Amino acid sequence: MIKTYLGIDVGSISTKGVLITENREIIAHAYLRTQGQPIEAIKNLIKELFKDNKNIEIKGVGTTGSARRLAGVIVGADVIKNEIITHAVAATYFYPETRTIIEIGGQDSKIILLKDSVPVDFAMNTVCAAGTGSFLEHQAIRLGIPIEEFGDYALRAKKAATIAGRCTVFAESDMIHKTQLGIPIEEIIRGLCEAIVRNYLGTVAKGKDIQPLILFQGGVAANIGVKTAFERALGIEVIVPQHFLIMGAIGAAFIAQDYTQKTKSTKFIGENLLDINFKTKTFECRDCTNFCEVIETYKNTQIIDRYGDRCGKWSEKLPNII
Amino acid sequence: MKVAFPYLGYDTIALKKFVELLGAESCLGPPLTARTLSLGTKYSPELICLPFKITLGNFIEALEAGADTLLMAAGARKCRFGYYHYLQENILKKIDNRHCFYAISQYTPYEFFFKKMPQIFGVTPQKVIYATWLLLHYSALIDYFRKLIRLTRAYNFYDAQKKELEALRIIENVSSFKEVQKAKKELRKIFSPIINTSNEIIRIGLVGEIYLMLEPFANYEIEKELGKLGVLVVSKRSLYRHLKHLLKLDLFDLRTISNAYKYLKDSPGGEAIKTVGEAHIFAKKNIDGIIHIYPFTCMPENIAYEALQKLARDYEIPILSISIDEHTSKTGLLTRLEAFVEVVKRKKFKG
């Protein structure tokens, strides 16, 4: 039996999972679409990861991503951590010199500043999601170009068309306007990549001290056009790590390893979770005019998690899982 | 006469007592809820700052509850707040025209004590001065309570929640200067046994726009959420300090402004200069992190934001800026707070 640790990152667009050994070698990883059904996605992810790895023993589990809480209660996670920390932990393991992490995911983008391998500051997009993965994907579909080839199109262009990057809707009408003028698609895509970078540097990274080494992670890092646009705007090399897609999951696995080595036990419920019926229900509490939406997670018929109430009268009846 | 004024977090109790001392009945309407905000948003210009929307919704609900006299603070010099009352008066007149709307200017003490308040409430100026003196002491008591509850939350969150109501009841029952002193002792008795200072905590300074800092509904209960994460919140803003500032009794004021000077030489309006000054004091005092909250589209605080970025670099202190409007999601806010607290903890305890 190989002792392994499981890291799961359930994001808005994709669900990522990774199995690492005690020596922090990656023995299996998986990447699938969340498709609005996180519970199904988690089950498929577990199936995928365990398919070729029968001879393993899970010693610890960590979850992260926007559905980290749900994923955590379903698989029985030992640690539930937000994306900032997991990304930072994974990045500093592979590149201890990292000072800046640029992370652009499906629906949010963030910047993490580190010093001596410790995150010291971060920022996340607050009022605008222009330039995140789901917008790029939408444009790729609209233009009929596979998202994987988007970056190559941008690289082929000699110059960039000017695209407004402040708002996704305006960016789209700007793109349509430019295509109607007959500007080649390559230049438009390059323009879009530059607009994304401009928007990122102007909003998320506003006023932050960007120092090398710079790591670029998250789904959008697959787009070489955006990476090149970053390098052009910053004038420094930007590194896309080998596992840029699953850095969050890797970080979660590392944190779970550190944690369970202290506690010597795991809450992981095992592979039989595939046979359990998980369900979430919501109801509106009408006891005051706040009308909180309370979210409940059921394991078969038993309630395992409940949150969303402002006053705490529903959630405090269950043990705090975080 | 049924008087309404906007809710102001815990300090509402003190303001209520002030109105009652002047011989009027207070009628504030139901506590602030999602309905208040959606009412306010419905009648507000879209890009106006969040405090305008909440206070407007607040007034509409107070009118529904039967209030006939509305009091709104006015005068903030260069900031939009100074114009709130013109607009609110207009909007409210269209909704219900049977009420009186008074704008209370904050920077004209003579008019406040001798003309405006005596005229509205039909009392002598002496009475107004006396009521203001008591208001100062009530708000000092609430400031004291706030310090205690912050400490308790950081060390023992769930017990703090249980004792909060009991403590608020004591404050509500205070009705004289003597009882203020007695209540302070009682509060200490309630909280000191449950403050268990054995475990290590982090301290985070809260700066920003005053209404968002004082009204938990407007800031999505940020102080409670931070307490839940085991953070001791430090803040210099309260009704008590604001009153002292207006009455020119606050010595801390000068210190704040001189500390802001390195990053912001002149006040751009609102409380931006205080935000920067307080943040600078926090950074010097080895506070572990700073959270800056302000309404989205707030001009002065956006200027303070730039100054704070520079301060963060100089002192290597983590700063989280949160701009809030009616579209802010609580989940998003919690993710940021959680991550920020984790960053601050890792920085302090090195891993």
State the separation between the terminal residues of chain B, measured CA to CA. Answer: 60 Å
What's the rounded overall pLDDT mean of chain B? 92
Percent of sequence in beta strands of chain B: 5-15%
**Mean pLDDT, all residues of chain A:** 87
3D structure, described in words:
The complex is a heterodimer of chains A (322) and B (351). With 322 residues, chain A is α/β, with parallel strands linked by helices. Chain A has helices at 38-51, 68-75, 83-94, 133-143, 150-156, 168-180, 185-204, 224-234, 247-263, and strands at 2-10, 14-21, 26-33, 56-64, 79-80, 100-104, 109-115, 118-124, 214-217, 238-239, 278-284, 293-299, 302-307. The two termini of chain A are 30 Å apart. The mean pLDDT of chain A is 87. With 351 residues, chain B is an alpha/beta fold. Chain B has helices at residues 12-21, 34-43, 50-64, 81-95, 109-121, 125-155, 157-172, 177-191, 210-214, 222-228, 239-246, 252-260, 272-284, 299-315, 330-349, and strands at 2-4, 25-26, 69-74, 100-105, 202-208, 231-234, 289-295, 319-324. The mean pLDDT of chain B is 92. The chains are: A alpha/beta (322), B alpha/beta (351). Chains A and B meet through helix 3 and strand 8 of A and helix 14, strand 8 and helix 15 of B.
How do the helices and strands line up, and which of them pair or pack?
The complex is a heterodimer of chains A (322) and B (351).
Chain A: E1 2-10, E2 14-21, E3 26-33, H1 38-51, E4 56-64, H2 68-75, E5 79-80, H3 83-94, E6 100-104, E7 109-115, E8 118-124, H4 133-143, H5 150-156, H6 168-180, H7 185-204, E9 214-217, H8 224-234, E10 238-239, H9 247-263, E11 278-284, E12 293-299, E13 302-307
Parallel strand pairs in A: 1-4, 4-5, 6-9, 9-10
Antiparallel strand pairs in A: 1-2, 2-3, 6-7, 7-8, 11-12, 12-13
Helix pairs in contact in A: 3-9, 5-7, 5-8, 6-7, 7-8
Chain B: E1 2-4, H1 12-21, E2 25-26, H2 34-43, H3 50-64, E3 69-74, H4 81-95, E4 100-105, H5 109-121, H6 125-155, H7 157-172, H8 177-191, E5 202-208, H9 210-214, H10 222-228, E6 231-234, H11 239-246, H12 252-260, H13 272-284, E7 289-295, H14 299-315, E8 319-324, H15 330-349
Helix pairs in contact in B: 1-6, 2-3, 3-4, 5-6, 6-7, 6-8, 6-10, 6-11, 7-8, 12-13, 13-14
